[in-house]
Amino acid sequence: MITYKFTTLVLGLVTAGSIFLLIRKNMLYIRYALWWVCLAIIIFTLGAFPESSDILAKYVGVNYPPTLILTGAVALLFVKVLLMDIDRSRQESRFRRLIQRNAILETQLEKTKEKQAAQDS
Q1: pLDDT computed for residue 52 by the predictor
Q2: Alpha-carbon distance 116 to 20, whole Å?
Q3: Is the dihedral of CA 39, 44, 47, 51 positive or negative?
Q4: Which of 7, 8, 45, 2 is nearest to 53 (CA)?
């Protein structure tokens, strides 16, 4: 029978391997990959040393260690979503400015063509 320790070790290795493969194929930006590599390390560590969650739960004062892991996972997901929203807002702002600059340049180009046409005739 396969133990949960082996399963989480394999899951951590597969996650890390997938991340490195996506980075290598330029399908994942390195800034985002750092987050996922840290997650893979956490999964691998908890798989290799399941007692560490028990020790950490006792230190923090949580009676049921899996609750600490789930609460931590929810907190990490919250932070990840927040960071993604911040990044997306920044990208939308940059995109909007780029569209405005493009419109200004097109207007200037049209005026220049009109002046050129007027001078040629």
Answers
A1: 86
A2: 55
A3: negative
A4: 45
